[in-house]
């Protein structure tokens, strides 16, 4: 069980009473302060009496572990969509003292632990260890994160210069995508685009320009259908790079990637393409 101290404070403020007034005859002012600022759980008797004084029911200010886990994992997924890996690490620490029994949640926690090792620490061996722990969670139904686990395992092996191992997980991801095309289309578009954007990048790293273009195009189609800029710059960048390697003219895709990266303030891609566009002597603003 977790108490939402900020909600106690919210309802106290609504009633216009101080911490001392709320505590009077129930507990100390210091106890109320700990509840509000540190989410300190008081005795059940104290909590019941505080809620009675505030005129609220306890379910408004407490959550059980299952609700708390669901909420934290939902927040972690949102941080993943924004590439905020430090926030993921911070949120994972909140789960360290909670007993988790749901296999899907266990799988996701292993995956996100691996992601933090991959993106923040550059510890690819530890990342692969965590990704494999996620794979070993026995769940009957395949979901989007099973594909992402294979993708990031392959990416970790690429960074370790272990191409043969990377190709094993790349092929697994390809097979899962092929078997899950309809499911991918029906999923949260952020998850679908994440899969295609990462597969396009991975395909380039493994020298498969044709697949890189195919995956980038699929992701771009979903992003445009959803009227979203999510990872659109990265996918146009991959599409342009794939086209260049195939000997095709890719100026337009490079320019699209550059412009979108400036709009969404993706400094990594913007700086990379700024130099490339200058070297290619491309005119961004044609008459």
Features:
mainly alpha; 2 strands; elongated; 1% strand; 16 helices; 287 residues
Description:
Helix content is 72%, strand content 1%. The protein is built from 16 helices and 2 strands. The chain has helices at 5-15, 19-23, 29-38, 44-54, 65-81, 85-93, 103-121, 124-135, 144-159, 163-179, 181-186, 189-205, 209-225, 232-245, 251-263, 267-280; strands at residues 2-3, 62-63. The protein has a two-stranded antiparallel sheet. Helix 5 packs antiparallel against helix 6 (85-93), helix 5 packs parallel to helix 7 (103-121) and helix 13 (209-225) runs antiparallel to helix 14 (232-245). The radius of gyration is 24 Å and the shape is elongated.
Beta strand count: 2
Q: Tell me the β content.
A: under 5%
Shape: elongated
Instruction: Give the termini distance in whole angstroms.
Output: 63 Å
Domain HTH cro/C1-type: 8-61
Pfam families: HTH_3, TPR_8
Protein name: Helix-turn-helix domain-containing protein
Organism: Companilactobacillus keshanensis
């Amino acid at each position: 069980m977790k108490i939402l101290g900020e909600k106690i404070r919210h309802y106290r403020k609504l009633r216009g009473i101080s911490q001392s007034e709320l505590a009077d005859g129930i507990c100390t002012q210091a106890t109320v302060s700990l509840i509000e600022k540190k989410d300190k759980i008081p005795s059940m008797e104290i909590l019941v009496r505080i809620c009675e004084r505030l005129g609220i029911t306890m379910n408004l200010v407490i959550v059980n572990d299952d609700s708390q886990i669901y909420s934290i994992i939902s927040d972690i997924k949102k941080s993943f969509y924004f590439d905020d890996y430090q926030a993921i690490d911070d949120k994972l620490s909140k789960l360290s003292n909670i007993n988790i029994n749901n296999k899907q949640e266990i799988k996701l926690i292993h995956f996100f632990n691996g992601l933090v090792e991959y993106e923040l620490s550059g510890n690819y061996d530890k990342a692969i260890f965590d990704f494999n722990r996620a794979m070993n969670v026995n769940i009957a139904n395949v979901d989007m994160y099973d594909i992402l686990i294979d993708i990031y395992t392959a990416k970790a092996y690429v960074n370790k210069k272990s191409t043969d191992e990377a190709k094993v997980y790349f092929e697994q991801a390809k097979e899962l995508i092929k078997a899950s095309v309809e499911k991918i289309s029906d999923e949260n578009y952020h998850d679908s685009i994440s899969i295609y954007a990462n597969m396009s990048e991975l395909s380039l790293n493994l020298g498969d320009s044709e697949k890189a273009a195919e995956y980038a195009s699929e992701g771009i189609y979903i992003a445009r259908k959803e009227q979203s800029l999510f990872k659109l710059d990265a996918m146009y960048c991959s599409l342009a790079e794939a086209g260049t390697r195939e000997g095709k003219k890719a100026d337009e895709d490079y320019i699209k990637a550059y412009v979108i990266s400036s709009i969404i303030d993706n400094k990594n891609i913007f700086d990379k393409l700024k130099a490339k566009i200058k070297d290619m002597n491309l005119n961004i603003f044609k008459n």
